[in-house]
Amino acid sequence: MKVIIALVVIIFLVNWSNFIEVTQKVVETPFSIEQVSITSFPKNYQLHARDTNNKAQIKISGNVEGVVDSLIAKVHRDNGIISRSTIAAKNNFSFTLEIEAIKHDYTIALFAKTKKGDEILVKKAMYITAGDVYVISGQSNAWAIDYDNAYDDEYLHPNAHWVRTIGAMHVYNKSAIHPEAESITWYLARAKAPDIRSATQLVGNGMVGVLGMNIGLNLVASEEVPIAIVNGAGGGGAISFYQKTTDKDLNVPYGRLQNRLEASGVKDRIKAFIWNQGENNAGDSVKDYKIALNTLYSSFKSDYSFDNFYIVQTPPGCNSKTGHQTIREAQRQFVEEKENTQIITRHGFPSNPNTVDGNYFLSDGCHYHAYGYEVLANWIANLARYDFYDGTVDFQAPKIIGVKLESSTSLVIEFDKAVIIQPDLLVNEVLYSVKNNLFAINNEIVSSISTIEFVTKNQRKIHLTFSDLKISKGDYLTYILGDNYLATSISYRGPWIVDAVTGVGVVGFTKTIE
Q1: For residue 73, what are the β-bridge partners?
Q2: Which residue range is the domain that position 218 belongs to?
Q3: Is residue 212 part of a domain?
Q4: The CATH number of the domain where 230 resides is what?
Q5: Containing H/E element for 297?
Q6: Does 161 score more than 80 pLDDT?
Q7: Spatial separation of the C-alpha atoms in residues 472 and 443, rounded to whole Å
Q8: Is 90 helix (H, G, I), strand (E, B) or coil?
Q9: Rounded CA separation 31/29 (Å)
Q10: pLDDT in tens, 5-14
Q11: CA 5, CA 400: separation in Å to the nearest integer?
Q12: What is the maximal distance between C-alpha atoms in the chain?
């Protein structure tokens, strides 16, 4: 009997030992999300730059350890999965996903699949899209405050959902204001810019200004593709404020913009870089401003890749004592000397339908009602359409080719495009004309032009005849001298010589008479 009992005990112990061993093999260490570390993952509202096939690639990468069998990346759109990618779990993992650049929001989710077959969400990003990228920099008219309160968030066009940005606008002349200065969060863009007039609002997350928003809205509407606008303008300041110091120096405008673009993933896929600055450099020589602009441009070219560089020529305005003619000439020469640069002006804006007198300036004669920024944004967007989207009309401003002496009292100006001369404009009950306000010989305004007319059947050539002035080869002719109407403090706003097709004003110039 004792032998039987002993045998039973032995058998029981052996089976129990086997049971424990089998049980230990089945039980897994519980999965924890911390076992998957992410090094690259899209962000909510992020725009990814598209390629020539209208696709954008999105990378997910990281490290995994523990009981993960495989990793699954899912791309959702309109409540459905459009792609699912699976890879075996390894120490290092990487996915490259693809989305189409259309007006759709994508959700991207990463799952870890355990050895038991459970799919556990590791990370998710929503409202992701793909499209084209534009960058703005400059001073207050690139900043573009919504002075008319016409662009409150709740009244934005539905297409505003497809205009995205990263980080915050930040006033130019303040050291880093945290946390906005270092922000690399993606947002649905806002048409506001910080209203720095009272110095109470100096930064603004997700803002692109009225100009930036309207460039985006124009392109979304015509191209049916999302647009990222990154506005690195500073609200004021000479060009010296915008030069590079050190990489990602958050205490200066250049470094703050660089920090945003470095984090965006699109710094090497920019369609156009838009420079709109010059008001605060009134009085600088042509040489000095051009040196500064070349230095800044070299920094941009070193740090980013962009297809085209757009310069918005500085117009009359802002009541400087010396005028901006030297800045205009420096900008004109810069574009003439650089490939893949285009110039557009702020000359020739149509009459503002929202003001009694048609004025697009605010009372300061420097900044614009929303209408002025809307017109400029439309011109810039049309220039981009021509450059990148098979547009058929070139919105670059007409440029001077040369000025030739015909006689001691007459000369001929030739442009690279057909132009028209706007009719006289009534401002404060005074009638102003092109011939009596816009031309200067040797830096002196000329009011003795007896006739201004086109050379027969050629709208690219304008013939000027002087009634009381002798001119010679070697003299120089300036188009747009000073900022105001003669003997007034009123900022000049027309009439102009403009593109015969687009209405964009011709580029201001100072040119030697040949």
Answers
A1: 85, 110
A2: 131-388
A3: yes
A4: 3.40.50.1110
A5: helix 286-303
A6: yes
A7: 14
A8: coil
A9: 6
A10: 443 334 444 4
A11: 114
A12: 143
